[in-house]
């Protein structure tokens, strides 16, 4: 349990780490944003394909993999359809920053629940290396997310201090849901494989619905593609280290 809590803490606080560059640079280059997002997408695809899905089949079989994967996709689809996105291009001048900040905070709270569950399910698996691997993948996704959140808030006339606090709060929700996922998988029989498949589905939905389109919309498709492949390779090497 202590290992799962520590892993989920590091993964969640990666959101705060993503805010750090904004303490020194207010504007975010589109090139670097696209490259970072594509790199994250590669890490998440690799973790899902080479880590979560094979272990889900091993622990619960192909039927549980299919049901869990579809459930993860459908839940993320439901969230994406009903929760507003962060628009990094918003220009300064919101007259009601507190309301806008609260809306963004609630949205990220809900978005982070499936990510936290994914980490918790992974630490409950029989494969000891799976938890750290998924925590790294989720943490890698949280860093550019924190950076984008900070840019949004600064463009909305928020302070850098508020950006850091909001990033920490969204990470806290991820930790809570990771603990829930861990205890659920530990005490409910046969749910681990289903939970791992759920995590894979959630990750893949995020990648194909959000990360890849976001990294290919500003004219930097080629460096983003190389960054995606490099991210996949990095996670493959990490998988071998923990194997």
From TrEMBL:
GO annotation, cellular component aspect: plasma membrane
Pfam families: Zip
Family: Belongs to the ZIP transporter (TC 2.A.5) family.
Major localisation: membrane
GO-annotated molecular function: zinc ion transmembrane transporter activity
Protein name in the entry: Dihydroorotate dehydrogenase
Alphabetized UniProt keyword annotations: Cell membrane, Membrane, Transmembrane, Transmembrane helix, Zinc
Membrane topology summary: Multi-pass membrane protein
Membrane-spanning segments: 6-24, 36-56, 62-80, 101-124, 130-154, 163-185, 191-212, 224-242
Source taxon at top rank: Bacteria
Compartments where located: Cell membrane
Keyword Cell membrane: yes
Species, as recorded: Paenibacillus jilunlii
